[in-house]
Structures are given as C-alpha cells and as structure tokens.
Amino acid sequence: xxxxxxxxxxxxxxxxxxxxxxxxxxxxxxxxxxxxxxxxxxxxxxxxxxxxxxxxxxxxxxxxxxxxxxxxxxxxxxxxxxxxxxxxxxxxxxxxxxxxxxxxxxxxxxxxxxxxxxxxxxxxxxxxxxxxxxxxxxxxxxxxxxxxxxxxxxxxxxxxxxxxxxxxxxxxxxxxxxxxxxxxxxxxxxxxxxxxxxxxxxxxxxxxxxxxxxxxxxxxxxxxxxxxxxxxxxxxxxxxxxxxxxxxxxxxxxxxxxxxxxxxxxxxxxxxxxxxxxxxxxxxxxxxxxxxxxxxxxxxxxxxxxxxxxxxxxxxxxxxxxxxxxxxxxxxxxxxxxxxxxxxxxxxxxxxxxxxxxxxxxxxxxxxxxxxxxxxxxxxxxxxxxxxxxxxxxxxxxxxxxxxxxxxxxxxxxxxxxxxxxxxxxxxxxxxxxxxxx
Length: 438
Ligand SMILES: [Mg+2]
Fold this sequence. Notes:
Blueprint: E1 11-12, E2 34-35, E3 45-50, H1 53-61, E4 70-74, E5 79-83, H2 85-89, H3 98-104, E6 109-111, H4 115-130, E7 136-140, E8 143-147, H5 152-155, H6 159-174, E9 178-183, H7 186-193, E10 201-203, H8 209-214, H9 226-234, H10 240-244, H11 248-255, H12 257-266, E11 282-293, H13 296-317, E12 319-330, E13 335-346, H14 349-361, E14 369-381, H15 393-412
Parallel strand pairs: 4-6, 9-10
Antiparallel strand pairs: 1-2, 3-8, 3-9, 4-5, 7-8, 11-14, 12-13, 12-14
Helix pairs in contact: 11-12, 13-14
Magnesium ion is lined by residues 49-50, 53, 142-143.
C-alpha cells in the first residue's frame, strides 16, 4: 500500500510523495503542486479534459509553434475550433468567427483541423483511461468520465492518486496535458475539471457541494443553455443558490422535468452512473464498389454476401442483433442509413438479408451508390434469437437450410457453399475493404 496519510496534508502531484505537514511545497521534490482535501481519499468519480486539445497536438508535433499563438480553425465554418493558451491571452475564444480572432491576434498561426490525427491521439489517451477502469464514458474526442470506485485494491492507491499518476503519464507519453476533476458525482467532477485549466486538478467534496454551488450562475447546470437561462432570469433566478431555496413541486410546475433537474443538481444530487461505451455495439460488414452501382439487381448479390458475413460473425460470437441497419453511400459521399427492428433478435443470414432487402428496395431511385453496408445492432446473447416461426413455414425451412449450410461451411470452408444470390456475381464488383466490428 502506498503511503496514504492525512488527507489534510495530501500528496505531491509531481513526485506523489505523501506530505507530512501543511508546508506549501513538497518536502521531497519542492513542487508547489500539492493536493489536499478532507475527502481526498474518498472520492472516486473523475472527469478528464485535455487542455486546448487540437492546438496542443499541433504544438507537440511542431515545436516551432510552442510559444506562438495558435488557432485551429478556418475551413468551411470559418470559426475558431480551438485556441491555444497564448492566443487566449489575446482574447481569442472557441467558436469566435475567424476574422474577429485575427483582429484580436493578428500574428496568430492558423492551422486547419486534422480531425483524423486528433481522433487517433484521443483514442490513445482513452486507452490509458481504460487501463485504470473499465468504466470510462467518453463525452467527446478529448473528454471522459471515469468511475474508479472499487479500483483501490487493483491499483493499491486511492482514485485521487491514480488520477494524478494518469495525468503525469499523459504528459510523459503523449506530450499533452489534461485537467482532472474529482468528486462524488458526474455533475461536480465535470465542473471541477474546468476549475484551474490547464494542468488542473480540482476536488469538490460532498460536504462542501451546496455551499460551493450557491453563488454560481445557473448556466453551470447541465442543460441550462442561453435560452433557458434567459427564461430563469425573467423569473428572477440567476444563481444556483436561489434554486436551493425552492422546492421541487413549484420548480416542476414551472419548468417540467427540467425543474426536477434544477432542484436536484442545485443541491449536488446527481445519481447518474458513468456509462461505459459497450465493447461492441453493432456487427456489420460493408464494401466499396469499383464502379458506382444504381440498380437493385446488381446490389442484391452484394447485400446477400455481406449478410452472410455478418451472420457468420454473430454465430461465431454467440450473439444476435435485433435491429438491422442498412448503410448506403452515394457517389457524392452522402450517407443514408436505414434500420428496422425485428420482433426477435436474429443471427440468421436469411433474416438479415431479407430485412436489408426490404430497406434497400425503397432507396433505389436512380442514385449511384459507391458503398453498401449491412449490420445488426441491439446486440444480445443468442439465447432468444430466431425462435421458430410458426406462421411463416417457409422462414422456418430457410432457417433449417441455413443451419445445414453452416455445417457444410464449417467442414469445407466459407466458399464451399454459395447461394443462388451470390453465385459468381460479386468478385469483380467490389474492392477488398476490411469490414468492421464497431
Ligand atoms: Mg478539452
């Protein structure tokens, strides 16, 4: 067990040494970055937000930019996506029109966003979060909640120390800084992470929640945007403290379900769980064509073959999906997704294909498509999948036939048995694009 002593003395964010007095600097490394809080070792909900994420990634990748004001933005929308802290000193803010930003900071370096790169970096950081707990709920590319309850035995450290180590690790391994908020609920953890950016680490405990919130503006509450804040203002409500004096009944009478939220959050009552992204939300297969295709006849064999792939994966993983999703991309890259929920989850190629077909039929309007995909979502284990259809005897027969085909394929390989839909019709039309399980 790491040395966890008096939470009033806390520990050093840099060298992690537990402190033994109320001194202002770490007695081991001299750093002033000490974490102290009466509930320091009891809180386990964290919110992590990368600091000026896009701009920081660009600065990391081009050291010449380091001390310069950098604005990520431009492009079609003509607004600031992210401004680095140097640019912020000059008054540049996110979502500001580009021309205004350049008025405020004419010597800024403007860089077009490279979303692919940021997404890649974001994924790496998220993976580091998952090393700490499976309960990671991403809010955006550079932001997530973590629930570290019950991880103390795994890490031999309480959540606050684990998160301090995490933020050091991101700096060391990714060359980027994050801000961390820790509390007993999501609402306050998120507020805390915003407190002393960049490289922040703030703690809001249960004891202080109500007092802490009292003088804050209502806009701090989730879901209170400009319009709703204006409504509240008309009713004379500006601070969260005012909400704390109001009862739930009248608040709900005035603002509906939002009234309940105002009542609860103003008092620091937030029982929402950290909801991790499920590992696999859907199973799908898609393919891009060599040449764009407009006709149903040409699309059908491809749909059939993809349905079989999806079905094969479902059967292998012993799962089934209840919603069939069809995906089409037109020549001008417009995406169409259509879905249909089935009465029961399925893992049968035949049902996936027939459902996909009925969705596809309606999309045939002369548009030339460059991509077709089919998949299922709403996944469950296969226990309830595909009950025998007592009404549609043909469907039952097809299910029996499919099981027989599966057995043959199991013995002789996937291409041993082709159905009439696909036989000899596909190879030349499709590129070899890897399929995805999302
Ligand atoms: Mg951020």
